[in-house]
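Researcher: Let's do a round of design. I'm pasting the structure tokens now; please hold your answer until I've finished.
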């Protein structure tokens, strides 16, 4: 049993590291998704069998089971029952705590509307001159949008050029040709 509990603990740690590296995504429902300002689907948070919740359960289960096996006289079925109960409770508490902290942080976060489209690709549909604005078109959430645009560094940009949006201020997008961005990468 000792190796079983230790394996569960290590599995929980590995799943925790995996979740930290990969990130945690909300799970969408079967209905049409709610979209954020950039057209990305937003799902409602809920308790689900994911890497973070499974990792939390396995870690708490492994620690509890090992401690019970090592320092108590409980029979193995009783150890398993207690370890499973504490593991489920630990997963619920961890999920609720992280959800609460993330929600609180998101409510306090101030979004700078100018940079919502930063890094988004677009195409020049009306030439951008050195001193005059042109026009770009971009797609968000399957819908095509068009907005006035100026070059970020003041250079002219021809029609059909792929550009990257830096920011949008007062209805004018400041863009940079993709070729220039690509050279920096």
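Researcher: That's everything. Go ahead.
Model: Designed sequence:
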């Amino acid at each position: 049993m000792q190796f079983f509990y230790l394996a569960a603990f290590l599995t929980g740690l590995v799943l925790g590291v995996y979740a930290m590296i990969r990130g945690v995504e909300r799970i969408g429902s079967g209905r049409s998704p709610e979209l954020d300002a950039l057209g990305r689907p937003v799902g409602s948070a809920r308790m689900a069998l994911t890497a973070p919740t499974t990792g939390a359960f396995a870690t708490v289960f492994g620690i509890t089971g090992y401690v019970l096996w090592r320092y108590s006289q409980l029979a193995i079925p009783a150890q398993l029952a207690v370890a499973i109960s504490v593991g489920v409770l630990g997963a619920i508490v961890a999920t609720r705590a992280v959800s609460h902290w993330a929600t609180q942080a998101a409510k306090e976060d101030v979004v700078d509307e100018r940079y919502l489209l930063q890094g988004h690709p677009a195409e020049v549909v009306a030439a951008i001159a050195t001193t005059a604005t042109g026009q770009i078109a971009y797609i968000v959430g399957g819908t095509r949008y068009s907005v006035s645009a100026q070059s970020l560094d003041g250079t002219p940009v021809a029609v059909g050029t792929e550009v990257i949006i830096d920011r949008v201020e007062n209805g004018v997008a400041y863009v940079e040709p993709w070729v220039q961005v690509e050279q920096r990468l």
